[in-house]
């Protein structure tokens, strides 16, 4: 199976052929995937070299001329390094663009911390008006990329990862999907966290929502799920733990609830290791997720006079 990033190059090559407004701007990373497209559209496939601030500035300039620019590099170089340009060239000027990242939080551990970006979505949360898609499968990446490019002149971030769920779901760039129904609480699995969440909660009486569009946060769907499943809510995100807990808490502000945010920890792991080792270290593998979800649910159950948790 191809990766999300493989699919990105294929989809964008087609969109360049289909829509004369579309332009792709690269900062050296990913250029090999656009060799043929650049021959066909030399004025709309632009490589600015290793200049990430210029990547954003050039994209904003294209947007101001009426183009629909798609900007691509690793997440740490796309959101973190040129954040001032994201804030001013795109945000302040209200210029729409599609930012498409790769490597997720730690998809290439050998690259070290410079190539890891667990805080990208949290950083974009400091800005207004961004739509954020987090596909969990290459097929979903294709759907969401087409949705993002066709979204008028909006500011959109598409977060691609090597991590992938076992199966694609019929995502629509809007509402989360209800994958499983239960009555003992709600787990919201974001993007590539769905397969490990389903494994971790296979025998638990929980509703599982699957979210691939996390901004705007769908408060209505979360509230509806808690009405039937109870107001114990666990958010499982493939980036910084707690990124979406403020949005979820606001959605349930008038409802008594308990909320647990699981994701990448703030402590830097200073050994390269492998991606599965990073997942396990952050408790995002099935075993780690199950242990923390069960502990959270048990803590909220009423205790009998003897002090043991009721089961």
From TrEMBL:
This is Transketolase. Residues 2-168 form the Transketolase-like pyrimidine-binding domain. Transmembrane segments: none annotated. It comes from Streptomyces fragilis. SMART domains: Transket_pyr. Signal peptide: none annotated. InterPro entries: PDH/Transketolase, THDP-binding, Transketo_C/PFOR_II, Transketolase-like_Pyr-bd. It comes from the Bacteria.
